[in-house]
Every structure is written in structure tokens, then in C-alpha cells.
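Backbone-to-sequence.
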């Protein structure tokens, strides 16, 4: 009964009555559905409660049956948004206060609304953009917001893959993969929340967080134990997010580096430049000359993609990847491969020549399309849908990018700006 008493104090009494059952059911259903249950729902749940009692069950058993039913209901399992009339906006529907409370809470915290959001919903404050902005700022100031943003970066950077990667390297383990993910998330947390960093600053930060488990991956010595410490990066080797071992590793699926794969990830994730699918009518690739001499990955890749049919897609993509060849498949810095010096220079048609990962990262961080791409990925994660499929999505991307730029590309502010867009505040009329 102690657990039931947390829902309703009357449930701790020796013989709770029907009124107590109603109170208990309404309290739990309200939390589970993230809104007040309808009268019909309450009647059906109370009928189930009484049916269990009539079958010689006790109050706790009857309440457990009701809780089981609630936890299987679509309104608990899904965030259902019907909306309501938007007044002067006949083209859209406005989310109800409870629907907006859930949308905000899951965006920022990744969980159900708290009491403050529920009260804001009931007061009507979440029916206006100003109220939404006020509550979004409150949620973002709460430590729980850090976990919500971590979920975005887990998906955006594919960090959740790290513990399950397959590597033949004897230093690799699932524990190391998990720790590398933590190192990146700790870095992002400090940059975004503690330093209020812009996206270009995140891409070009000159520090990282390491502990004894991951220090070697970053080329840092003298660090032992589990405590996370901020360290300065070797300025000629690493810079910012894109040279974190975790990011370098998740773009590969094998024990060897793959310039094509790394270049593809930069095009897709950093620049939102989408390559067309491979032409099914493409003639078979012409093999380059064979050799038994030691080669670097770059030399081998150059031979593989020398066929003109390959070069038209691979040229810029592989050049981007070549700039990161100073990092092996474990994300460790190197200057040689197979006893040969690594050439990390690149010459991307629309970027010009660069010499190594540091120079490339700086150029990428300065591009307007890098900022636009990040805001697009963030919008897609937050709204749970593609924003490139129609005119409305293109309009949202332009609006959010404009807001992002006006905010100095501040990552934290991007979340607040998203809550003020039509895509977040309204539902399409035809839904």
C-alpha cells in the first residue's frame, strides 16, 4: 500500500472506498497520459477496478490491473497530437496546452512534463509563443536538459554505436567505446552549457576531456584514474569535435581507414550535401595496376578510384577523407602507414587546397552551409521528421538558419529558437 499511497494518501487506509479508487486512477492516468483523462476513460478504468474487486481481488490487485491497462494504452505509449482550432490561422491547428507541454518536455528533457509544465498548460500559458519560450528557457536551465541534448548528439554523431563496434586492435573493448562516447558527451556538455559556445566554436575547440581509459586515444600521457580532466590538444594534431576519436571511429565499420566513408560523413552530416545513388548502369570498375609494394591507404584508394566513372563522385568526397588520414581506424594520430609518410593534403573543388585535418576543420567551421546543416539536423531530430521533403520544410530550414545566425550560431539558443517556429508551435491542417 505504501507505493499506492504515493498516488493517493487514501490508498494507505485499511479499506479504501470507491472515491479513493477514483482519485488513485485519475492521478495515475493523468501522469501516464500527460493530460487529464476523459470522463469515459475514467469510467472504463473504474469499471475494471470494480470488476477485479468483484472477483475477490483486493484494492491493490484491482489498482494493479488498472495500472497495467493504462500502461498498454496508446495515449501512454505514444505522444498523440490532435491540436485544436488556431483562431486567425485557418491553415494550421494549434497544439493544446497539454500537447505542447509534452512536446517541450520530450524535446528538452526526453521525458514527461513536470508539475510546472502541467500548471503552465492548465493556465493557458502554452497557447502563446511567449509562454512556450518562457517554459523552454526554464527547462533548459534545469540540469536534466543536458541528457536531452546528449540524446541528439548520440544520434547525430552515431555515438551509441561505439560500445558495439568491432575492432581487431587489442586495445579496443566495449568499455573503451563507451568511455570514448562519454568523453565526447562531456566535451559537448561543457562547451554548450557551461561555455555557451557557438557551433563554430564547438568545431574548433582546442581542448578535450579525458580520463585514464581514453587518454592514449587522444595522444595524452600522464593521465590515470576515472576522473574526467580537461586537457589542451596538441595544436598540430587535433582540433574540435570532428577530430575526437569517437567521431573518427563511428564513420568506419572496419579495422582500416576508409577515406570515402569519412568524406561521405562530412558531406552528409556536416554540409548536408547529398550524393545521388550510384547509377545502376555504371560500367564495371576498371582495376588499376597491381603492386606488391607497401602503400598508404591514400595511394591504394587513388588506384581504386582512378576509373573516370568513379572519379566524378569520389573526387571531392575522397579528398575530404584524405585530410583525416592522419587518424587510424581507432582515431589515434599517426604520421606514417606501412612505413610510408602520410599525405593528408586535400583539394576540394569548392573549398580549395588544405593541408591536413586542422586546416580543413577551420574551413568547414567557417562555412555558412555548415551552420545551416547543423540547424537542419537539429530540427529533424527535434520534430522527428525530414525537413527537406517539401516547401514547408525548406521554409523551416531557412527560418531556423536565419534565427541561428542572428543568435551568433549559439547551440543552446538554437533550441529556444526552434520552439518559436511555426513547425513547433502548430500542426498541419490536414493531419
Amino acid at each position: 500500500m505504501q507505493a499506492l499511497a504515493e498516488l493517493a494518501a487514501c490508498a494507505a487506509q485499511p479499506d479504501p472506498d470507491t472515491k479513493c479508487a477514483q482519485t488513485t486512477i485519475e492521478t495515475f492516468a493523468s501522469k501516464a497520459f500527460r493530460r487529464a483523462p476523459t470522463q469515459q476513460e475514467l469510467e472504463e478504468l473504474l469499471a475494471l477496478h470494480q470488476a477485479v474487486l468483484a472477483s475477490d481481488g483486493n484494492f491493490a490487485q484491482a489498482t494493479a490491473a488498472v495500472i497495467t491497462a493504462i500502461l498498454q494504452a496508446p495515449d501512454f505509449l505514444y505522444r498523440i497530437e490532435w491540436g485544436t482550432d488556431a483562431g486567425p490561422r485557418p491553415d494550421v491547428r494549434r497544439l493544446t496546452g497539454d500537447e505542447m507541454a509534452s512536446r517541450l518536455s520530450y524535446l528538452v528533457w526526453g521525458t514527461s512534463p513536470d508539475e510546472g509544465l502541467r500548471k503552465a498548460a492548465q493556465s493557458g500559458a502554452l497557447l502563446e509563443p511567449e509562454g512556450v519560450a518562457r517554459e523552454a528557457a526554464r527547462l533548459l536551465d534545469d540540469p536534466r536538459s543536458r541528457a536531452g541534448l546528449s540524446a541528439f548528439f548520440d544520434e547525430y554523431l552515431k555515438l551509441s554505436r561505439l560500445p558495439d563496434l568491432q575492432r581487431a586492435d587489442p586495445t579496443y573493448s566495449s568499455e573503451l567505446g563507451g568511455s570514448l562516447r562519454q568523453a565526447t558527451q562531456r566535451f559537448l556538455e561543457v562547451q554548450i552549457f557551461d561555455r555557451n559556445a557557438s557551433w563554430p566554436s564547438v568545431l574548433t575547440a582546442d581542448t578535450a576531456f579525458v580520463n585514464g581509459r581514453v587518454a592514449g586515444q587522444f595522444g595524452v600521457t600522464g593521465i590515470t584514474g576515472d576522473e574526467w580532466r580537461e586537457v589542451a590538444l596538441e595544436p598540430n594534431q587535433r582540433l574540435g569535435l570532428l577530430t575526437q576519436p569517437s567521431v573518427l571511429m563511428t564513420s568506419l565499420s572496419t579495422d582500416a581507414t576508409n577515406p570515402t566513408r569519412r568524406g561521405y560523413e562530412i558531406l552528409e552530416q556536416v554540409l548536408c550535401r547529398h550524393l545521388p545513388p550510384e547509377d545502376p548502369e555504371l560500367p564495371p570498375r576498371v582495376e588499376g595496376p597491381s603492386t606488391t609494394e607497401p602503400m598508404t591507404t591514400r595511394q591504394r584508394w587513388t588506384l581504386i578510384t582512378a576509373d573516370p566513372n568513379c572519379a566524378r563522385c569520389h573526387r571531392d568526397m575522397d579528398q575530404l577523407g584524405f585530410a583525416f588520414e592522419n587518424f587510424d581506424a581507432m582515431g589515434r594520430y599517426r604520421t606514417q602507414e606501412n612505413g610510408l609518410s602520410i599525405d593528408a593534403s586535400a583539394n576540394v573543388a569548392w573549398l580549395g587546397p588544405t593541408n591536413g585535418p586542422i586546416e580543413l576543420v577551420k574551413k568547414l567551421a567557417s562555412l555558412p552551409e555548415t551552420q545551416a546543416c547543423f540547424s537542419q539536423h537539429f530540427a529533424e531530430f527535434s520534430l522527428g521528421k525530414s525537413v527537406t521533403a517539401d516547401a514547408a520544410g525548406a521554409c523551416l530550414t531557412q527560418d531556423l538558419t536565419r534565427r541561428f545566425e542572428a543568435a551568433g550560431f549559439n547551440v543552446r539558443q538554437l533550441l529556444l529558437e526552434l520552439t518559436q517556429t511555426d513547425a513547433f508551435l502548430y500542426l498541419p491542417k490536414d493531419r
